[in-house]
Task: structure prediction
Amino acid sequence: MVNFNLLKNIINPKKILEKHNFFIKASDAAIISEQFKSVDEEQQKNWTNLMQDQGIVDHPFDYEQVTQTVTKFGPARASIDKYHDFILGPGFYVQTGDKRADQLLEDINIQLGMYDLFSRVLKGGLPLGTIVVELSTDEKTKTINGTKIVSPNTVYIKKDDKGNVIGVIQKLGRTQEPVDLPLDTTALFTFNKMPGKVYGEGIMYCVMSTINEILEIRKHMLTMIRRKANSPIVATLGGQFGDKFVEPAAGDVTSMGKELETLTNKTEYAVDYATSLKVLDFGPVAEKFSYVLNNAWEMFYVSMQIPEVLMGKGNIAEGLGDVQMDAFQRRVVSLREEFEKVAEESIYRKILDANGFNHLKPEI
Result:
């Protein structure tokens, strides 16, 4: 996993706190917020002793570590942004084949800010693999009137003896009782879900070890550059000159050493024939790390399944580039289908049912 001591040493960003308000109207805020059972993430403690007798499944990996990596490691963030832009960037619309239902869903998208919601779902769900959206409904019409993303670090999935997902809970700290989030009031998004698993693995977990290698290599490389970046001057005093041997006095050597200690870019020297000044060149120090670092970056792009050219790197033939782009777009379609399936069934299906369009099927 990623060594965060390296992340702190190499990258030390300021902490940025973002507070989002997902309510549609100020007047409806109180009614909607009462239906949200999840709580804000404050002073959260890792909950590792999960109650197996209740069928609560632990996270497949450390969500906080992956989140911090995406936040602090630029190429990881850029990779997530690339997938986000290709999946959602062009925008979307929902159609059912019925003009009234289509207009209803279009109004809901505007009213609830669904594009912004789905944008945050992708940016949070793609790295971690699992993200939950809590839904509130109008008491009279039973249609969805509010959404809220629950902090992934606090969400755990419950399953029965047969491995079927039966619910979602939120747990903060070791002493607080878990909060039940029923499946009929939530939308459970999973990305890159493996057979027999209830959580998605996302697209970051498999590349964490490679990121650690990149940071390790860069740390050693920068250390060597800092130590060997300058070109020290070697002064040779005395020597054999024809039949004459000149032996410098001890004071002359000491004096020259002190002169070199105060060397600046404006210093100039005038020496006699018995003094020789040469530059000690350590050669291209960074090139010693080039192969290993390039290999690590190749592993990063392969694991993320992103063509290097999309990240502003790589010099490949046009034909090969077309093949890589086609493969990337197929990967995008696969992830988009995972996302659209949940959005259609867990959100838009409920909106249509609540408004008497049970016979229609929503398609994004």
